[in-house]
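Q: I have two molecules that I believe assemble together. Could you output structure tokens for the complex as a whole instead of separate predictions?
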Amino acid sequence: MSDVCIIGIGIHPFGRTDGLSGVDQGVFAVRQALGDAGVDWSQVQFAYGSSDAAGNPDTMVDRLGLTGVQFINVRNGCAAGGSALFSAQMAIKSGEFELGLAVGFDKHPRGAFNALPSEYNLPDWYGEAGYMVTTQFFAAKIMRYMHMFGISHQTLARVAEKAFRNGAHAPHAWRRQPVPIGEILAAPLVSDPYTKYMFCSPAEGGVALVLASEKKARELGKPLVRLKAATMRTRPPHSFEVFAPSVDVVADDSAPRGTATRIASADAFRLAGIGPGDIDVAQLQDTEAGAEIMHMAENGFCADGDQERWLSEGRTEIGGALPVNTDGGCLACGEPIGASGLRQVYENVVQLRGDGGGRQVPGHRRGGPKTAYSHVYGAPGVSAVTILER
Amino acid sequence: MRAIAEGLFTDETPPRLLGGRERATGRVVFPCPAGDSCDPVPLAREGRLWSYTVQRYRPKTPPYAGPEAFAPWIVAYVELSGEVIVEARLVGAEFDAVEIGMPVRLVPLALDPEAAEPLAIPAFAPIEGGRA
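A: Yes, here they are, computed for all two components at once.
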């Protein structure tokens, strides 16, 4: 089967843009991606759009042109962008279409996400008691992980410090001011063990990717950035997830539990026919500093507990063996749910093209990166992974 | 004190939490879901702390129905041996003295003690003299 290629990318800077709706930011990204690909909107045969809180993506057709294009909206928690991309590549793989679009945007109010129990099949009292708070889950998950595998507060702070330092070189990032590690550790706690610098904030932004069949990409004369795998999976039994009033007991609780991420990751590597050691750059969901740590292991890049050494040795730095979150990830870019997963792929295409400027990874034996990995995770236990190759 | 919802606690004194045992698999969950997929099952009063965090800011209202004046509280996951791990408050412990593995016992807590009719939510407290 021929590969699906990413031939155009566009992004509206993340952060806060007063006066511009989420859809506006999505349209901005689409126009940029079409320009990058050198194609007109009228050539686009289909689109998948993701947004969690900023309205229906398909409404953007009145701005882009009423071509009658097939346009499907996707809502899938924090995996929404990944799910849109998964669906888009399937449409091309099926042979039905040759050129399409995955677009994601969002615009969240300031402050923590405000979920309601009924949206997650939970009783009302669970929210009244104060548990519909995503930060509690992330904090409780890393608290146990630190206890089991000896991860230190210093390592959590190193992740956040790297994020802001990388973000400084990404024009689309929100928080672009480096923060010293001591300030990160001494900042007020939000949910123990995390200080305010260790959590990402809900934000705004838009990302669009133009996808084409390999044949179409060659016709258009575009460099081939191949989407070797795109997977989206839900949780296995016994996993610990966001908004969990209870968790299963297991016979041996000394090993990490299965997660949607582990399944999506293993599947992606199988499809791409490569392993974690072959990846040159990775974007891993870093809703908070500990998520990046845990996701390094859940995606197969290191053993549980090895993150202490990896971080102290700088292995996940831009110039390290496996650069992670080269644009500062969610910590520096913020989290517009519908756009986040696509931002990771945008960043990976930038890296594979060698356009990363101050954040460009030197890559495989210094000849530039050949492979790039992205991973998102969200409530209530969903994960999406992509692997790109050039 | 009335419970925040029907079916969370047993009627005895002191109460226990009511979980649900899935008829098909025997898996225990909390709370007991509505419908006929699960049989209600009283859960152990004592367990060990599985994980925790401290909620340092007031959750948004709605849905949060706690007091307007906010003081941070501990969110705990408590493992009830051989049954299930339940999410609840942890009370009676200094934040920096909390340790994963510490033994705890169920002590229902008023969500808002100043309310005209306080409502009880699940909570645990360290067992005095208990060893982790």
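A: One point stands out. The longest strand of chain A covers residues 4-15.
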